[in-house]
Amino acid sequence: MNLKKWTGFVNNALWVVNPFLLLIAFFNDKLKLGMYLEWLGKMHPLFLHFPIVLGILIGIYYLVDKKGSVDSNKLHLILVGNAFLASIVAILGIFLSQQDSYDDSLIFAHQWGGIAIAMIGWGLIYLQQYNQRFKNNYISRVEFSIVYLLVIIIFTHKGAQLTHGVSVIGFPQKEAAEKTQVIKVVTDSNATLYARAVAPILQQKCVSCHGTTKVKGELLLNTPENILKGGKDGNILTANKDKEAMLFERIHLDITHKKHMPPDGKLQLTTEEVAILSRWIKAGGDFKTKMNELAKTDTLFLLANKYTPANNTKAEVKTGLPDLAEYNSNYCTVNYLYHGSDAIDVNFFQGNFYSRAVLKKLEKLQDQVARLNMQGMPLTNEDVSIIIQFKNVENINLNFTKLDLKAIEPLKQLKKLKLLSICGLNFTESELSNFLKGSTIANINIWSSVIGKTQLEKLASNYPKTKFTIGDNLESEVLKINPPTIDQDSSIITKFLDVKIKHLLNGITIRYTTNGVDPDSITSPIYKNTLRLNRNTNLKIKVFKPGWISSDIVQRNFYKSEIRPDSIYLISSPDQKYLGDGAKTLVDLELGGSNFTNKKWLGFKDATMKFMVNFNQPRILHKAFLNSLIDVGSEILPIVSISVEGSNDGIKFTKIAETKFPYELTKKDGMKDIKTFTVDFPNNTSYRQYKFTVLNVQKLPLWHQSKGKKAWIFVDELFLN
User: Which letter, b or e, does each residue of 100-119 get, where b requires 16 or more Cβ atoms within 10 Å of its Cβ?
Assistant: First the structure.
């Protein structure tokens, strides 16, 4: 087949390729591609440069060639080739868009811009071939070329933003600064678990794709508020009935899976980081829990307390690595740092069960051990002589191992050792200074009762290449008091409820309020022995001590439930995934907590919530309270209104009360809360049947990732007084 026939064949093929392109573009959200077509999509970035360059050259040609001097047959060949390549690249781009979660606005512009480039290229073939005005009029060709070039430049730039971030053409200095950013780790024991370990992990491994410069899947992971909002697929921290939380699921997928996070080619999570994120998510994904509120034996505390960010470089992914199961035991975990790495992370637990034989067995892996955690182990010089054989170790934790600096002197031989933790070891300023002489260790975590701020400043000036990290044990003018605890399992008051408040620190004053106002150190009542509650109460507690920073406020709601109906049933059915225990859920005196998947909530979305409360004899009601969950990221919004009808025969109902609740949430709220919605009844209202109708938000607001859809409402308890 000669060149002319090939050109004709490709030209005719465009009448198949381009309708196919438009078809899959319009039905993009319904595409379900097989493995091979998904793989084919990866050819998009490989071929896209050809039609871009060719299209730009064609546009320039029409700008500069006033006479149309290029042979028409040759020009036809170029135009057909350009149009065909542009269409194939656009098709591959749609295939590629199915494999990852990109910013929707960018991908929409890039996709339809690419289709426009393909269609303009296709139309250009027939303009050049059949339109005499275009062929003979230089001004027409110039107008066309300007439009064509602008479309190519603008919409291919959108593709660059998808791949490299919205600031792809920003100044290099800023980009370099972002690449070399320092990952901050807060070591203060008053720090939250999130700040101590979770935030640094997300900052190093996730924010590059889910941060302010690049937003994949409408998901931002740079602040707690943005994390709670979730992405285009909703909440990422809450498990559904049949699925794990989305963040938990994605980090546990195999690296070859298209939805594995971080994606293949990015710096991967270490085994330690996966464990921290997993346990944090399973514990509820709380952003306020402090390190000093966790038990020192809690695995999550141990993992977070020793956490330091991994080396911020990409490593070669290796396959066929041997199984490490034989080195693992109940008191020692040995794992690869991440999938495809031959570097190993070793963690010892429970010093009472420490065995030197386990450490000695690791000599077989001595060139692969990169991180070694021996915190709390009863080590001796013999153990140190084994450790110094791990020539490639970068991070060693010897906190509270009862060694001294003389015993660990040999560790200075380890040329790749970058971080050494020696908290709890006994040494003086001069001993530490002598230990640092000739050392190449870049980071040292220390804790010593004899080294204060002055001595630390002196050490820092003498050893400027060493970074010292010290906890909050140094001389401190003011310390903050830990929050108190409320010693009462129930939150529901029948006749009355006695609440006890506990705190371990001596010499403190506990003050409280029961009206929602924050306690202060002067006017708020002082807690003494027991606090008796007999009505709906928003209890707030704060601890004070002279010379100390007062504690954070602890608050909890208590609900009065005076009247129990003789029976209750649901008129409308809740969603099949959130059935709770049927109507009993509303009167079982058991609150559902913050996890709406725990089968203790009734969830309504498409059906309006309606239920009936029955009494054997007419009963006067003054107030009704519905306890409801709010989780904006999971599409669970506040109740819009509650209306109540009364009847004495179960047939004829009279509307007796309705309360509407202002709906004023904004995009900044990112709320996750539990609220009580109240209905007041007219005085002397007396009926045997009370029918409740509870309305949900009918359209999620425009700023919500699920805009336009109905919102959920979740209710776990009804209180009647």
Answer: ebbbeebbebbbebbbbbbb
User: Which 3 state secondary structure label does DSSP give 713?
Assistant: strand
Claim to verify: residue 527 and residue 438 sit in the same structural domain: no
**Segment 328-353, tens digit of pLDDT:** 876 788 888 766 678 898 988 777 78
Give the residue with greater pLDDT, 264 vs 658. Answer: 658
Burial (CB count <10 Å: 0-12, 13-18, 19+), residue 194: buried
DSSP code string of 88-120: HHHHHHHHHHTSS---HHHHHHHHHHHHHHHHH
Angle between helices 3-26 and 72-97 (to 10 degrees): 30
d(C-alpha 4, C-alpha 593), whole Å? 73
pLDDT the model gives residue 98: 65
Task: Provide the domain limits for residue 70.
Answer: 3-164
Kindly state the average pLDDT of the residues 388-400: 90
**Token couple for 13:** 């093929």
Tell me, yes or no, whether 173 lies in a domain.
no
Distances (CA, A) of 212 to 160, 241, 671, 706: 16, 32, 21, 21
Q: Which residue has the higher pLDDT, 581 or 190?
A: 581
- Are 604 and 692 in a shared domain? yes
C-alpha angle 190/195/196, rounded to 5°?
70
Q: Which amino acid is at 616?
A: N
Q: Give the pTM.
A: 0.39
Within a 13 Å sphere around the CA of 696, how many CA atoms are in the beta-carbon half?
A: 26
390 and 331 both lie in a single domain:
yes
CA distance 183 to 201: 9
Per-residue pLDDT tens over the stretch 624-644: 889 898 888 788 899 999 999
Residue 713 — very low, low, confident or very high, per pLDDT cuts 50/70/90?
very high
**Residue 575 and residue 548 share a domain:** no
Tokens of 490: 């129930």
Residue 82: CB atoms within 10 A of its CB come to 23
Q: Which of 164, 199, 220 is the last residue of a domain?
A: 164
Last residue of a domain, one of 443, 476, 509: 476
Which pair of structure tokens corresponds to residue 376?
A: 């709390």
Cα distances (angstroms) measured from residue 434 to each of 373, 411, 414, 445:
24, 14, 17, 16
Most confident range, picked from 67-76, 542-551, 641-650 = 641-650
- Residue 196: CB atoms within 10 A of its CB come to 21
Mean pLDDT of 45-49: 69
DSSP one-letter string for 323-386: P-GGG-BTTEEEEESSTT---EEEEE--GGG--HHHHHHGGGGTTTEEEEE-TT----HHHHHH
Domain count, the chain: 5
Cα 611 to the center of its chain, rounded Å: 37
Looking at residue 366, what is its pLDDT?
92
Question: Which helix (H) or strand (E) is 9 found in, with range?
Answer: helix 3-26
